[in-house]
Amino acid sequence: MSKPANPLKTRHKFLDFLYWNLVVSVPFITACIAIGKNSILWLISYIIICLLLVAVLYKFYCTHCPHYIQSDKTLKCMFFWGIPKFFKPESGPLSFLDKAVAIVATLIIVLLPVYWLWLQPGLLVIYLLSVGVIATTLKRYECRRCTYFQCPSNSVPEDLQP
pTM for the full model? Predict the structure, then answer.
C-alpha cells in the first residue's frame, strides 16, 4: 500500500468544519443541560463565558495558524468557517503569553461545568468521554497532518516537515 502524495492537511473543507463543530457540541450541550437543570442564570453565564473565551482563543491562538494566515477575508478552518479575520495574522511560533492564554482559556471552558456535571454522574460520564474523544481525535487525525509546525501540539514526523 502506497503513502499519499501529501499527507499534510493544507486546506480544510466545509465537512471538516461541520464534523468538528458536531463533535464539540456534545460536551458543550451536555454541560449546558447539567448547568441549566440547576440555574438558568449560570447557564447563560456559561454560554457567554464560552463565547468570550473562544474569542480569546481566536485572537491568541488562531491568528498564528497557517489556515488563518492563508485565508482571504474570512477564515476557513475546522472550527471557524466564514468568520471575518478581525485580527492581524501573526506568522511564527506562539509566544509564552499566547500559549498560556490558550491553555488557561481551554481549561476554563472544560473545567467550568464540572461542578454541575458532578451532581449528575450520567452527564459527567458523557462529558468526560466526549472531551476525551475530542482530544484523542485531534491528536491522532489533525495534529499529525497539521501544517502549523511551530504549534506545541504538532506531531507531524520531521521527515514530512519542510
Answer: 0.87
